[in-house]
Amino acid sequence: MATQAAHHIHTDSSLPLYRLDAGIYARLVEAGALDGMDVELVDGLLIDKRRDQLDSIHRLDTDTYNRMVATGALEDEPVELLEGLLVEMSPQGSRHAVVIMRLTRHFAPAPAWLAVQLPLEIRSRSEPEPDLVLTESEPTAQHHIRDALLAVEVAVTSHKKDREAKAPVYARAGVPTYWLVDVPAKTVEVRTEPGPDGYGRCDVYGAGTMVPSPAEGVADLDVAALLS
Q1: What are the tens digits of pLDDT across the range 160-198?
Q2: Are 179 and 214 in contact (CB under 8 A)?
Q3: 94-226: which CATH topology?
Q4: Which residues of 1-20 are buried (b: 16+ CB within 10 A; e: fewer)?
Q5: 189 and 180 Cβ atoms separated by less than 8 Å
Q6: Which of 37, 97, 121, 130 could hold 151 in an S-S bridge, CB 3.0 to 4.6 Å?
Q7: Is the pTM of this model over 0.85?
């Protein structure tokens, strides 16, 4: 494994890529989390050493990512895995937090399991951390949640990532319903009809409308009350 190079790597990704510092990288190497990966750290990114292009970022699978997390080196780091890339998560402000609290209370009556800001392991290269998930699967100690009836993201500044990166990931995973709560616009975007190319339908609900219930035991959602 090589140490961090001094030159800059240009990428074609529009995602806010998470960049490892040399200390975290060294801990991952020492713990064996990167064993079997012929990579080096260049400008904070894991780069495949055998590729011809210097901007060839190594794409992680969920097993490798979970092994990295298990070392503790990424503890308290704002990072999630999308399409094999380490991506920064936005910090939480009060507007974001209050909407999540209201949504948590709204979905609490559901007989399905409610997960709040926990990993959703999507084989084989994504492990986002949706703001809320409804799942029929009882949690286990062996692995993260792997299926969802509903995924919800609350966007104050993260709209581009939530629409362009996360929506296709959830659709390809077969999540039947994806809500994007747009806090500044005071709308809820409801995506349904998932497929390999994304969601086939997107309905937008604004103030004065009710979002139809996505699950048993959950009432329709008053958008104005949520985003007041």
Answers
A1: 999 999 999 999 999 999 999 999 999 999 999 999 999
A2: yes
A3: tt1808, chain A (3.90.1570)
A4: eeebeeeebeeeeebebbbb
A5: yes
A6: 130
A7: yes
